[in-house]
Amino acid sequence: MTELILLALDKSSTLSLFSRAFQAVGYKTIIAHNRSGVEKVIRESHPDALLLGTKLDEEQGIKIIEKLLTQYPTFPIIFLADKKSPELIRKALHAGISAYLEPPLKTDEIIEAVQISLMRARRIGDWVRKEITGTTASLEKRVSELEVLLTIGRNLTSTLELDSVLKSVLSAAVKLTNAEEGSLLLLDEETNELYMRASHNFEEGFAETFRLPISDTLAGQVVASGKPLILSKSSLEKIKTAYLVQALIYVPLKFDEKIIGVLGVDNRLHRLPFTDRDLLLISLLADYAAIAIENARLYQTTEIERTKFEAVLSNMGDAVMILDQEQRIQLVNTTMSNALDISVEKLHNNLVSEVITQSDFLMLLKLEKKDSTQYHEISLNDSRIFSAQYTNIPNVGAVITMQDISHLKELNRLKDNFVHTVSHDLRSPLTAVLGYAELLERVGQVNKQQREFIRRINSSVQDITALINDLLDLGKIEAGFDARRESIQLDSILRYTLDNIKVLAENKKQTLEIDIATDLPPVRGNPVRIRQMFDNLIGNAIKYTPREKKVFVKLQREDNQIIFRVADQGQGIPQEDQPHIFQKFYRASNISTSASGTGLGLAIVKTIVESHNGRIWVESKVDEGSTFFVVLPSS
Ligand code: ADP
Asked: 538 in ligand 1 pocket by Cβ < 6 Å?
């Protein structure tokens, strides 16, 4: 290719003279007369050298040189001095020109100077190109190393298949270090040996049976010291009997400061040494491998736990369902699926309200969740009855468990029937006992002691009769034989009760504070039962409150409900007894054994309240007192 020389001279005569001389020796030329002309030619035509005359303008000439060389540092500039001026030459040399010529200027010398400058520029160019090629190759190598590492990193997070991750780690280790073989040895803690978990370029049979003791081996040394090893010996290095290598790298596999094995690459045939860079790459890969192994271990442990949990869950007799915070079914066992008669697949991952229509079950979800656990009975169409619990689990959702209590319900029914029948049958003989006891005094003289015995018989029979009456009442209300309803005024029934009962309070010198609202709306109910309810609650308050204390009775309206409360300053009910006091025969642990009563009063009250669609509950503190609340809907 013909080289192009830019001539930037002032005198047109010398200009064309030089131009012709250059053309004669095979160069192309181009001429510029001023600074902007020079810059334009350089920008557009890319000349190979510049012949610059000083006449152009001394200051400008130096500026052009400086600017051009800042942009193109290897661009050859040959400077032609117009007159001998050491100062100007010094400045030009400082600025970085390739050559300068002083008068007398001879064409041959000028051409020679240009040729030498061009040759030097070419050499510099060649050197720079070589350097760039070298640097680019090494950069490309680094980039490809990084890409390999990145791919493995990504692979690591996207797959839990240990075999595939380890395979790619080993093939990368071998590829990046130009090694012949790669191996990943893991420590068998039981035998204190290293076995080959993964390998690259090893014979399959060999890899499978490979086992290396910790003591007296290079790999064992790395495990014991926790430090990497790089070996490039002139002689063959024996790392295991009958296994010789020329060069090798072993890097410990560490997780949480614990050494679990070794990652290694080696050259057996070629004496190709490994570099520190190779060591660094193997160390990075070893970190990846250690993370992959730990991830797989964690995953396996979690899987085992999950399988165990699932086995327990599906084999347990209780029905279990776990909901997320949106009430979507996350987990359900077969007992639950059988109870609801809906397949596990249909339930799983769906909203409860979309897949379950069973009304009791939906009611359980609607119950006020002020406490963490709610209880509800669920009667299924196939007549089975389940006791269900709904428990809120913060940040998870809720768990519902259900137990089949059909057999308990049946037992309860049989027991109630039995009690009812027996009570009924006991009434006549008891009446007879009472009658004959009374007759005793009439048929003959009785002494003082005999009279006392008769009194005791009387009192005991009366107690038993009261108990039997309570039981029969309860049976009647529970069986729904007591459905008579009429419009009643609670205030007048309450006043009637108070009139009858106030004597009991007076006997104990207690004060009865009464607050009954006027204009209370009527309630639909059974007046006999409502009176029984008031009698029991106020009677208890008086009975369980010491002498000279107070009992408060309040009846008021709230919206379309009527609230009755009776508060006392009595002994209170221990917290642990409170959930049970409405059960039949239950008496709290803090009452004295001599306190009269059957433990049936509150069970009767609760049955009455519920048969009137009302609610009853108690708030109580031991030694401070109790308040019973009854809420009934007004008609
Ligand atoms: P009882 O015949 O024993 O009074 P109830 O069914 O009426 O049976 O009451 C059950 C239990 O509840 C009582 O034995 C007592 O322990 C407790 N109880 C009921 N009312 C009160 C109260 N006002 N103060 C303290 N304890 C009470």
From this structure: no
Q: What is the pTM of this model?
A: 0.50
Domains along the chain?
Answer: 4-128 (3.40.50.2300), 159-302 (3.30.450.40), 316-404 (3.30.450.20), 408-479 (1.10.287), 486-633 (3.30.565.10)
Q: Which of 545, 591, 602, 629 to mutate to test the pocket of ligand 1 (most atoms within 8 A of CB)?
A: 602
**Cα 475 to averaged position of ligand 1 atoms, centre (Å):** 20
Provide the pLDDT for residue 495: 95
| Ligand 1 center to 298 CA (angstroms) | 57
Q: At what angle do helices 107-158 and 276-315 cross, to 10 degrees?
A: 20
Give, for ligand 1, the residue of 587, 620, 630 to mutate: max count of ligand atoms closer than 8 Å to Cβ: 587
Cis peptide before 429 (omega within 30 of 0): no
Helix, strand and coil percent figures for the chain, each rounded to 5: 50, 25, 25
- Which pLDDT tens digit goes with each residue over 112-158? 988 899 898 889 888 888 999 888 888 888 888 888 888 887 777 66
601 within ligand 1 shell (Cβ under 6 A): yes
Output the 3-class SS for 162-222.
Answer: HHHHHHHHHHHHHHHHCCCEEEEEEEECCCCEEEEEEEECCCHHHHHHCEEECCCCHHHHH
Query: Do residues 65 and 8 touch, judged by C-beta distance below 8 A?
Result: no
Q: Which of 62-76, 153-167, 575-589 has the lowest mean pLDDT?
A: 153-167
